[in-house]
Design goal:
Residues 327-458 form the Oxidoreductase molybdopterin-binding domain. With 461 residues, this protein is of the alpha+beta class. The protein folds into 2 domains: 12-276, no CATH class; 313-460, Oxidoreductase, molybdopterin-binding domain (Sulfite Oxidase, Chain A, domain 2). The chain is 38% helix and 12% strand. It has 13 helices and 10 strands. It has helices at 31-39, 45-49, 59-86, 116-130, 132-142, 155-182, 192-224, 227-232, 260-276, 313-316, 342-347, 374-380, 407-411, and strands spanning 329-333, 336-340, 351-358, 364-373, 388-393, 402-406, 416-421, 424-425, 435-437, 450-456. The strands form 2 sheets. The chain has a 5-stranded mixed β-sheet. Strand 1 (329-333) and strand 2 (336-340) form a beta hairpin. The longest helix is centred in the middle third of the chain and has 33 residues, at 192-224.
Length: 461
């Protein structure tokens, strides 16, 4: 965007600062250190700084990108924290489990509306991807600030730079690790869930501090440049903004290679493109085939079981023999134990519900499930109104081979031990012989290949 190229650089000590103004030490800052730092910049710093010559850079364009992020990033943060709560941290099954004083208020995740988790997780992932061009454009607009020298003139500016470092580092870390996770490219040498959770808090704290420091300047910058003028001025008439105290305007601007209108259109177009290649993961039918950026969100096939699978039976180590005629689901409530095969389950009252299933990677789908209500199974084993239910899978290992369901999730009339989907038996990859389906529950806790359900009372802990 604009022109960024090198120009001959003279002696840095003979130059004004990059913004064309003379910087003075703030009161209280030792003058001798200021003079020493100002007189001894790193070799080549002035030449590097002069490479950033685009006339588009300035407070107004930076503020435009900033206000878009200020309006949308809180939604990404809030939906991410809500998704953490959906996993039931009170049962120790939200990751990371031990978050110390960063523990969120705990409450029973609701089952209504049934699409709640589908909405929060879909927004978190899709909006995070859509904002990538805006984040990069915002960083591009302020990159000359990296070459300010001296880097700080007061304690307050040191704190401002530190918040900026945490802000930029935090958002790049969250984007990079999030993208790798949804692509199933586990290249980290650390636990993704732990790093992403604590990284979110670091970024959020830095964002709050940065907004507190910069909001007045952002608002004044927006008022300084009428949008109509910026959006109607052609490239040939594009001129730099007036010099600003933050030094965002190039000291030696070159000719514009694109107008501000073109730059905003480019960033907006890239965001729309990423959105178009992402949103299909949350839509069924032909639109799912447009989810080119999400490997698990695409349509894997046709037929009643032709919808996305997060973890296949082969990956889970569950074979046809495990789900054969000898399979039983064991129901427990205190000392009472009941074992049922598929024939016994099919002989019970069947309930059908059209419910979504949504995955942490952001994809979701709505299917028609048929099976036995969990409340009926609880009554069968004498559990009455259980406080929770612990479900175990035939899956031998893995982070999600078991899950604890809250009372409202067990007793919801649409909560099922599903035996079929869309009028057909479940496929092995979708959890045959039986799987859990609960409204608004994260997909990985809709346990597949169920082997045991233990209904617990409050005194069971």
């Amino acid at each position: 965007m604009g022109t960024d190229s090198a120009t001959p650089a003279g002696n840095p000590s003979d130059r004004p600062t990059r913004a064309g103004t003379t910087q003075r030490p703030a009161p209280g800052f030792p003058r001798r250190w200021w003079r020493f730092l100002a007189a001894h910049p790193p070799p080549g710093l002035a030449r590097i700084a002069d490479r950033w010559r685009s006339p588009l850079r300035g407070p107004w364009l930076t503020a435009v990108f900033g206000v878009v992020l200020l309006a949308t990033l809180p939604l990404v943060i809030i939906t991410g924290l809500l998704d953490y709560l959906a996993y039931g941290p009170q049962f120790g099954q939200a990751l990371p489990r031990d978050v110390g004083w960063l523990r969120l208020p705990q409450f029973d995740w609701p089952t209504r509306p049934a699409w709640l988790f589908r909405l929060t997780q879909g927004l978190h992932v899709t909006l995070g991807i859509v904002l990538i061009p805006v984040v990069l454009a915002k960083l591009w607009s302020v990159i000359p600030k990296l070459f300010d020298w001296p880097p700080a003139r007061s304690v307050a500016q040191v704190l401002e730079r530190l918040s900026l470092l945490l802000l930029v580092g935090g958002i790049l870390f969250q984007i990079a690790t999030g993208l790798l996770d949804i692509q199933y490219a586990y290249l980290f040498g650390f636990d993704f869930y732990t790093a992403h959770y604590f990284g979110a808090w670091v970024f959020t704290a830095a964002l709050v501090a940065h907004v507190a420091l910069k909001l007045p300047r952002m608002l004044s910058a927006l008022r300084s440049g009428p949008p109509r003028a910026a959006l109607t001025t052609p490239r040939a008439a594009t001129r730099p903004e007036p010099p600003d105290p933050d030094g965002l305007v190039a000291s030696h601007p070159g000719p514009a290679t694109v107008s501000r209108r073109g730059a905003l259109a480019l960033v907006g177009g890239l965001s729309l493109l990423l959105g178009a290649l992402t949103v299909g993961q949350s839509l069924d039918g032909v639109w799912r085939r447009t989810a080119l950026l999400l490997p698990r969100g695409r349509q894997p096939g046709e037929g009643p079981n032709g919808f996305p699978v997060n973890r296949t039976a082969a990956a889970a180590g569950v074979g046809a023999a495990d789900a054969g005629p000898g399979w039983r689901v064991t129901l427990r409530a205190g000392e009472r134990v009941v074992a049922l095969d598929r024939a016994a389950l099919l002989a019970m009252a069947q309930h059908t519900a059209r419910l979504p299933i949504a995955c942490v990677e952001g994809w979701s789908t709505v299917q028609t499930w048929t099976g036995v209500r969990l409340s009926d199974l609880a009554a069968l084993v004498g559990a009455g109104t259980p406080a929770s239910a612990h479900v175990r899978s035939l899956e031998k290992s893995g982070l999600f081979n078991q899950a604890t369901l809250q009372a409202n999730q067990v007793l919801d009339p649409d909560s099922l031990l599903a035996l079929g989907v869309n009028g057909a038996d479940l496929s092995l990859d979708h959890g045959y012989p039986a799987r859990i389906i609960v409204p608004a529950l994260p997909g990985v806790h809709c346990t597949k290949w169920v082997g045991e359900i233990e209904f617990r009372t409050r005194t069971d802990g």
